[in-house]
Amino acid sequence: MPEVLASVLATPGLHWLVLTIMAAGIVRGFTGFGTALIFVPVGNIFLPAADVIAITMLVGFGGSAALLPRALKVAEIKDVSTLGAAALLTVPMGLWVMTQLPQDTIRWAAALIAAAMLSALVLGWRYRGRITVHKLLGIGAAGGAIGGMTGLTGPAVILFYLANGSRAEIVRANTILFLAMLDVVIVFNMTLGRLITWDMVALGVTLSIPYFLTARVGQAMFDPKYEKTYRTMAYLVIALAVVTGLPIWD
Questions:
Q1: Cα–Cα distance for residue pair 191/86, rounded to 1 Å
Q2: Is 15 exposed, middle or buried (0-12, 13-18, 19+ CB in 10 A)?
Q3: Torsion (CA) 35, 40, 46, 48 in degrees, nearest 10
Q4: Best CA proximity match to 176, nearest among 24, 67, 87
Q5: What CA–CA distance (Å, rounded) separates 61 from 166?
Q6: Measured distance CA(106)–CA(102) in Å, rounded
């Protein structure tokens, strides 16, 4: 036990990681997403990409425990299950790509993906077509590949749900469920690939405590009547990820 505590306390930038994960918990609580968009850019400053992805997913279990019970009452289970099934197949590919790329390349990729998502939303792009199984599979596959490579599990699915005009409550619930599925899938694949160490687990468990508490605070703040406010907050979260994720600040 003392060794585990010592390894956590020795984590570079630990106080910044704690503050960041608390902010991420609040945002995820009332928007349904935002954990990776906030935590990954900051985490990449202090830790290797594989560590950041693993810790983000492990911490995500805390958010899922806080948010899933309420989300399951609203989420479109069939559609989200289709998204998750496709992501299951592409996560290993994304993780493999991550292990082959330099740290700065992954950081640039994360920032550019977030920037592309933000641009599409701000410019008013809207999906007008019919939502078919094939399209859901494609979106889920993209989410799995991007999540495995960068730790940003949400952009593809969030972009789809926000852009097609779904109600904020549905966007939030579907996203919470999908991200919970990907947390499990990515951690499972990283464990098989021996990419997760006990030090990562210890740090993930430690950070999940403040994350769980602040996610509950954020959930208490959520009110479907303020749909426009939540969409605006989602855009601001993405913009923050783009700016802070750039390696030029190192």
A1: 20
A2: exposed
A3: 130
A4: 67
A5: 26
A6: 7
Tokens of 182: 């990907």
pTM attached to this predicted model: 0.80
| pLDDT confidence band for 126 (50 / 70 / 90) | low
Integer angstrom CA distances of residue 89 from 86, 107, 144, 226: 6, 24, 8, 36
> What is the separation of C-alpha 66 from the centre of its chain, rounded to a whole number of angstroms?
15
Q: CA torsion sign, 158 to 134 to 90 to 108? A: negative
Residue 101 per-residue DSSP state: S
**What percent of the chain clears pLDDT 70, i.e. is strictly above it?**
90
Burial category of 70 from C-beta neighbours within 10 Å (exposed 0-12, middle 13-18, buried 19 and up):
middle
Whether 174 contacts 118, CB under 8 Å:
no
Non-local (6+) Cβ contacts of 216 within 8 A are: 29, 66
The DSSP string of 193-249 is: TT---HHHHHHHHHHHHHHHHHHHHHHHH--GGGHHHHHHHHHHHHHHHHHHT-GGG
